[in-house]
Amino acid sequence: MTRWHVQVRNALSISRVSRRGCARCAVAPSPSPTGEPQNSPPWEGGVGGVGSGRPIRVILPQTTLPAGTFEERGIRRERALTPHPPYPPFPRGGVICSGVPNGGLAKRCAQPERRPLSRRVRARPVFATACLLAILLTCTIDPASGADTKQGLTTLEPSELVKRPDLIGHEIATEDRIRLFQFHKGEGYDEVLLKRTTVVFRLPQRLRPDHPPSQRVFSVQGILGRNGDDWYCDVTVLEPLPDDLDRLNRGTAGLRPTDADGRFAWARWAEKRGKDFGDEKLLERAKALEEEAFRIESDRPSADPAKNALALAERARSRHIPEPEPSALAHRGFRKLFVEAKNAQAFEGLMTRIEAFFPKATQALAQPAELGRWEVPYANDPAEAYRQAPPDVRKTLDHRLWADTAQRFFESKAAEDPAGALVLADTAETRLPDRPNVAVKLLELGLKSATAELTKLRQAEVENLARVYRDRLRDPERGRALIRNWLDTHRQNSLRRTDAEGRLTLADQYSTLLDDKDTAADLLVEAAKIDPESKEIAAALLNLNYHKVSGKWVPRKPSQSMANSSSGDSEPVRPAPSNASLRGSTPEEVRSRMGGEPQRKSLTASQGQAMEQWIYYTPDRVHFVNFSRSASETRPKVVAFYSRPRTASDPPSR
Length: 654
Known about the structure:
Blueprint (H helix, E strand, L loop, with lengths): L2 E7 L4 E7 L5 E4 L26 E4 L59 H18 L17 E2 L15 E14 L3 E7 L5 E3 L14 E11 L2 E12 L2 H10 L6 H18 L2 H19 L6 H14 L6 H16 L3 H14 L17 H6 L1 H7 L2 H26 L4 H11 L4 H15 L8 H14 L3 H18 L6 H15 L2 H14 L4 H9 L2 E4 L2 E4 L31 H8 L5 E7 L2 E9 L3 E9 L7 E9 L9
Parallel strand pairs: 5-6, 8-10
Antiparallel strand pairs: 1-2, 3-4, 6-7, 6-9, 7-8, 9-10, 11-12, 13-14, 14-15, 15-16
Helix pairs in contact: 2-3, 3-4, 4-5, 5-6, 6-7, 6-9, 7-10, 10-11, 10-12, 11-12, 13-14, 14-15, 15-16, 16-17
C-alpha cells in the first residue's frame, strides 16, 4: 500500500495528515457561520477559496486507520459521510506540495490489473488534482495586507527580491503573473519566470507540469539563492491563484457595506497590479472601488463634517477619482462652510478656496441650466443631488456656489466699511455681471454713506456722485437733487455776510451745475451789494441779462434798450447774445469761433478754482471770454461771455 501525505493550507494553520490505505477520500466543507452545511462539492467552490475565511475538513475512510494518527496532530477523525465522488474535470495547472519524500500530493492507488503507466502519464491526474486543491485552499489573506501566516517566511513583492541579499539562503514567498514556463530538453518545464522580477524560479521534479498551465497568477515559496549576478529560487511550493479581477471581486464581496478602509486597501492593491501589468480593466475596477470607498467614508459621522468632506474631496481629486464624486464632496463641504460663515473675512477665504477647487466657476454662464427641480434635493443633500444632476446642471451649481459666496462677501464687506461700498460696487459689477442687483445695492449703500455729511464734500466729489446716480443708477433727478442739496447747504452754512467772492463762485456753480439762472442772479445781486466795484460780478450779471438802474441790478426787460439805462448811470456794456452759445465751450472751440488767439489773457484763482479771461478786440467792440476749471476737471470751459463798445483807450484791433 502507498503512504499518503496531504497538506491542508488556510488562513489559520498548516497541518499534515498521514494514513495507510486508499487515498480516495472525500473532502467536505465545514459548517458555514450560520450553522448551515455547505453541500456544494469542493471543486464547485464550496470549500475554502479566496475570501471564504473557513477551515476545511478532510474526511478519510476509517478502514485500517491507525489510532492516534489524527489525534496526535489535533485533527478530528470522522467517518466518510458520502461515497467518494467521481473525479471532476480538474483544470491543468501548478501543484501545491509540502516537499513530502514520497513525492506527490494525491497519487491514486496501484491498480494490479492495469499495465504500469509511464511517469509522464501517471503525473497528469496528480498535477490536475493538485491544481484544484490549490485553487480551493488558497489563503484568504487580503492581498493588500501583506500578512504572513508562517513563522520564518518572508513575503516580498517580486521586484524587491533582488534588493534583499540578506535573505539569501532563507525561505521567501511572493506572487506574480507568469511570464514564461521555461522548457529544457530532457528536463521538461523546469523553470518559471515571473513578470516583475529577473529571479529564475527552479522547479523540482514533482512540481514540473506536463504543459504550461492556463492560470496566469501563481504564489511561489522557496529558498532564495544567488550565483554571481544571477538570482534564483529553489521552489518548494507553487500555487495557482485566481485571476486578479476575480480575486478582487471575491475579496470585496465579503466586505461590510460600511467598510471603507477595506475597499481602499483592495483598491490600492488593484491599482498597483493594474499599473504593473498594464491591465486597464483592473485599473477601472480599482477606481470604481475607490470611488465607492470615498462615498462611504463621506457618510460617516464626523466632528467637523465640512472639514472632513473637503479633505476627502481634495484627496479624491488628487487620486484622479472620476467626476462627479470629488466635486460632489466639495459641494457638501463648501455649503456647510457657507452656512457657518459670519463675516467678510470668512466669506473671502471661502471664495478663494472655491476658486481654487472650481477654477471655471467664476465665469458667468451664457445659458445657465434651470435649477427648479434641483433646489430641494440640493438643499437637503448637496453631494447626492450633485451626483444625480446632469453635466449642465453641475456647471450651473458650481457657478452659483461661487456667486453666492462672492455676493455675501461684497455685502458683508460693505456693511463693515460703508465708505468703500462704491469701490466694491465696481468690483461686483465686473465679477458678477449676471447679478446686477448686487452692484446696485452696493451703490445705494455707498451713496448713502458718502452723502451723510455734505459739507465735507468737494465739488468734484459731488459731481462724481451725481454722475453715479445719472449713469449707473439711471436716475438723473436724484443726482440733480444731490447737487442742489449740496449747494443749498453751502449757501446756508458756509457764506459769510461780507463774502462777495464766495457768492460769485456759488452763483457760477448754480448756473453751471444746475443751469439755475434765477438762484445765480440772486447770489450775484447779493455779491454786488457787498462789492459794487467788482468787474467780475458786473460781468456775470450782464451775462445773465441784468443791468444797473439807479445803482441797483435788475433783470433787463426784452423791450428795453441795451445801450444805456434811464438813469444814465449804467455801464456802457452789453452781452453778445449772438455768441451766447460759447458758454461751455473749450479753448479750441473759442479759437475756432473767434478766429484765433486773443489779444490779451489774464489768470486769477479763488477757492480751488482757476479763472482765466481772454479778451478779443474788434473794430467796434471788445469781447470778454471767461474760462473756469475746477480741481476735478482736466480742461477749462467757458462760464461767461460778454462784450462792450470800444473806447479810445483800447488797443487797436487785429
